[in-house]
Known about the structure:
The protein is α+β, with helices and mostly antiparallel strands. The chain contains 18 helices and 18 strands. The strands form four sheets. A seven-stranded antiparallel β-sheet has the order 15-12-14-13-17-18-16. Strands 5-6-10-8-9 form a five-stranded antiparallel β-sheet. It is globular and about 65 Å long. The chain starts with a helix and ends with a helix.
Amino acid sequence: MGWFKFANRWGQKAQTIIDYTKTFEIIYSSNSSSYPHLLQSSEQNPRWVNSSRSSLKPLLIVTPFHESEIQAAILCTKKHGLQIRVRSGGHDYEGLSYRCKTPFILVDLVNLRSVDINLEEEVAWVQSGATLGELYYSIAMESKVHGFPAGICPSVGIGGHLSGGGFGTMLRKHGLAADNVIDAYLIDVSGRILNRELMGEDLFWAIRGGGGASFGIILSWKIKLVRVPPTVTVFTVSRSLEQGAIELVHRWQYIAHELSEDLFIRVIIQDVDDPNNGAARTVQAAFNSLFLGKLDCLMPLMNQSFPELGLKVDNCTEMTWIESVLYFAGYKKDDPLEVLLDRNTLYKSYFKAKSDFAQEPIPEVGLRVIWERFLEEEIVFMIMDPYGGKMNEIPESELPFPHRRGNLYNVQYLVKWVQNGVKASKKHLHWMRMLYNYMTPYVSASPRAAYLNYRDLDLGINGKGEESYSGASVWGVKYFKDNFKRLAIVKGRVDPENFLRSEQSIPPYPALKKGR
Ligand code: FDA
């Protein structure tokens, strides 16, 4: 608890901080040799750490082993008028977990990552600093017939993922990761540790999809495990433009959300080398699927509902659920499960992403123009994740994540680049914004909805002071629709001074703030 006495004087007393750090190994000042490595350790989008233009580096990085160290970090930061950032897996698309425009300290939860499975009750307690891969691995070590419905990339952190919603291949059967959270421990702005009962249902609602960083630091989550069959089936069938990809994707839009809940078929569109002409590029659609059952049940389903794809037995592989996790993450079937424990992502790169929700099928002519635009860029993806099933059964207001019935699928657009620089990033950002504009007539409107976990600062950023609620509504209703107001009311109750703030944090609802 005592470290913040030193942290208080960081400018003048750097040496003291370093000595202290050596003893306790939880505080790293910029003089520490570990600091640069730690800062970059889990960032996914190197655009931010190397950019000194729009953000500062943390004055200190704190890597707590115990909740008391987080309590101290919060109180110390507050006392000295600094800001605080919390990072679990570091996958925030805009780097908001580790960058800030004003002096701040970074609390990195990398050391708080235990997973405690209770198979008898079919629940687990998982700390925020664990990754999805660590969670999936721990479940698989205990049971072959349990899993958890969360995202596809194993290096994503639990803290950001669950607090922003979180979905993956079992979304149509079991909903979001956040739908399967039943308790949590959070440290609030006063340093109090609160579980569900103590924090109350409003705050517990807010942290399951409203973004945790606006409300406190979430230490751990109690989750419901779900049953998975001992054998599941996966397939990936790819078709290029020349092989009728547009017609197939067009057809997919009518059926993917209505299929059996056990069947998840997403589409990944990307530009690739043309196999028939090495010098040319083409666009390819990959139909990438998990079926929660065996091949002999999958084939009749596919033949009946999506015969146009021409799925063959040879395209499919039966495996365990945990092997399917490796498959979707891009590993080989025979890779050891331990690859899930690797916190280094396979996907680190400079990138910009945006998201949409489609409520009507895009006509073939629209798809054709989108794909023509793909050929203008080098590394681009459009990932379409089907909704329906369980997502239709959950009311929009159940959790802050409102994108339920009425959505055919979620779209994520992603452009990546290898050589960074102001010119390069401007070019790619410009292209992405053009594509997004082009998509306007085809996707949800009023609001044009977006997914918080695919954070996009183009949607708007916070202003200052009393106006921040109305200003923030510009981006807030896109992520949360009518739930935005309730989030702001909760914020007004638990953090009326808006201590926990960032470019896209929930502002306190003004009436409540004034009424205090
Ligand atoms: P990070 O640590 O950057 O945190 C993200 C946000 O949550 C920040 O605002 C941070 O301050 C806050 N936060 C983190 N821990 C907190 C805590 N303990 N308490 C309070 N606030 C906290 N999504 C999805 O739904 N399905 C998917 O399949 C994927 N796949 C995917 C792949 C790759 C390569 C990337 C980069 C991202 C995804 N995502 C995803 C998006 C992912 O769910 C999203 O970026 C999460 O917010 C990441 O959580 P982290 O803890 O890793 O991020």
